[in-house]
């Protein structure tokens, strides 16, 4: 790969790299934990190809991909960003993604937009659980991958340990192409294991020479493993026999087989990178080993009715099918959509059909609209460089799509199509907020609608029961970024408030009660008396109203009035203001007046009767109980089960899932898991995930019931 050529076509700084055909494009997503060096690697590659004059530094806040003011302050990526460059006539769209679990939505979008993944592993920090999970996710879909071990010049760097960790965690097919040459703690260059040449970077320019004699044993050890791995993936079955027989294998044959295996997603080369070292090798892996968009499977496409559509390929002359992988809104610039074109060609000022479906539960209404797009541009961080078109396989920025949201499909107006959206994790951290002032309240709805359009991992809930505005987020860091954007970008100040969990009330026993509504006011008065019996029903029993009136003591037309009054009082609650459930109310006696009785009089009597019943028997507060399914590594199962028990949970069982993971199922009160998304991540070192679903209501323990009743 990188050993075949030393020339590089340098792109001109400030000019957008152009691509007229899909086979001259590589879309590569950079994946790795926060701090692994993804953004720094992007800067080095941009500088090495002349796209920027000099690489920026995360610490200085001047990198291309971390241009958001939140990223500059926090010195970490929180958004997906695209940095295009050109190398040897190939346009490479580098997709820099966040490495923190809270921003996995942007990371998943990057995986959708890419045709290959570059896993970035720090030589000083190792591999985290999220990176391992994403490797497995890429493996399931057969995405081609390579590994870059960064920070090999760090004082705590250990290349051999980092390589061993990659081979242990990522599995078979992971093998190094180069070994770093370190002298007195400084990385001078790399040794190519196939060519057995030393590529010296000591002077700043890459030169080739013979390696020193002291590296023979190290080269031989790694070279033998690399060649065996390549031969195992070769389509030429005779190579292994020839190799075992001691016959030398031509390096060109090995490189060609290596490139094919990487392209198929069955072999994963490891290269290494430090400041000023390894950029050429990374670029060659990308351009010669990774597939073009022509070789990447097309996502599932349907028409608007859901019927599958066949025959759509990565053809610039085919029907337009593109997908919005990222939406950003700016109060001054407006909405900009980052779009991956899968088929057809996008041109400025053309009219497209915008389809969005499947995220209504997160505040994204289903929509089908025609819109005229504005200018097309090639993004380089915050800079938008105009381009004449976006061909199939390319990633471009589109202006003025007012209705388009992240995950939407753009297609021909005459032939609207819909791409099956990628899987998004559920936001499981609820955060209740309220506007700080009346002026903020007036602007809040519009600002939140823009945030929802940008971020499909955010769910907005207006809880009708608790009267609270709730943001469902991925974690604490996600929450902080959202609130920061509300304040800094949209000028809306909000404050967090304690989250209220919607409770219920019910009767703790059977009793009889009377509702007496007798009033004389000079004209028509009110006269209604009803006798009821209340009794609790099993959990989930709802409400039953039983009519046992005989002899017409309550006229037939007023019996529904009693029920209506009872229902109204149940909605308001009788003790702490929570709705009442699981109750049977039997109307068995009453009195009426020929003149003063009315529908409203008996409604009030029904309400009074229910209140009197509440004074005669204990009233229980019920809390919602959820069923949790927690997926964790085997090492953390004991801690997770103990923690669930401490939350008043009942562990129902465990079952193995794949290799090294266990699914723990439990029933846990909602009051105990409002911050479980944060706690599980801490407990499992970022490797645990969970889902939750409402199960039923159960009585609160008396001590908690008294506390919440007083608060209510």
TrEMBL record:
<dbReference type="InterPro" id="IPR014721">
    <property type="entry name" value="Ribsml_uS5_D2-typ_fold_subgr"/>
</dbReference>
<dbReference type="InterPro" id="IPR041095">
    <property type="entry name" value="EFG_II"/>
</dbReference>
<dbReference type="InterPro" id="IPR005225">
    <property type="entry name" value="Small_GTP-bd"/>
</dbReference>
<dbReference type="InterPro" id="IPR020568">
    <property type="entry name" value="Ribosomal_Su5_D2-typ_SF"/>
</dbReference>
<dbReference type="Pfam" id="PF22042">
    <property type="entry name" value="EF-G_D2"/>
</dbReference>
<dbReference type="InterPro" id="IPR000795">
    <property type="entry name" value="T_Tr_GTP-bd_dom"/>
</dbReference>
<dbReference type="InterPro" id="IPR000640">
    <property type="entry name" value="EFG_V-like"/>
</dbReference>
<dbReference type="InterPro" id="IPR053905">
    <property type="entry name" value="EF-G-like_DII"/>
</dbReference>
<dbReference type="InterPro" id="IPR009022">
    <property type="entry name" value="EFG_III"/>
</dbReference>
<dbReference type="Pfam" id="PF03764">
    <property type="entry name" value="EFG_IV"/>
</dbReference>
<dbReference type="InterPro" id="IPR035649">
    <property type="entry name" value="EFG_V"/>
</dbReference>
<dbReference type="Pfam" id="PF00679">
    <property type="entry name" value="EFG_C"/>
</dbReference>
<protein>
    <submittedName>
        <fullName>Elongation factor G-like protein EF-G2</fullName>
    </submittedName>
</protein>
<dbReference type="Pfam" id="PF14492">
    <property type="entry name" value="EFG_III"/>
</dbReference>
<keyword id="KW-0547">Nucleotide-binding</keyword>
<dbReference type="InterPro" id="IPR035647">
    <property type="entry name" value="EFG_III/V"/>
</dbReference>
<dbReference type="Pfam" id="PF00009">
    <property type="entry name" value="GTP_EFTU"/>
</dbReference>
<keyword id="KW-0342">GTP-binding</keyword>
<feature type="domain" description="Tr-type G">
    <location>
        <begin position="23"/>
        <end position="239"/>
    </location>
</feature>
<dbReference type="InterPro" id="IPR047872">
    <property type="entry name" value="EFG_IV"/>
</dbReference>
<dbReference type="InterPro" id="IPR009000">
    <property type="entry name" value="Transl_B-barrel_sf"/>
</dbReference>
<dbReference type="InterPro" id="IPR005517">
    <property type="entry name" value="Transl_elong_EFG/EF2_IV"/>
</dbReference>
<dbReference type="InterPro" id="IPR027417">
    <property type="entry name" value="P-loop_NTPase"/>
</dbReference>
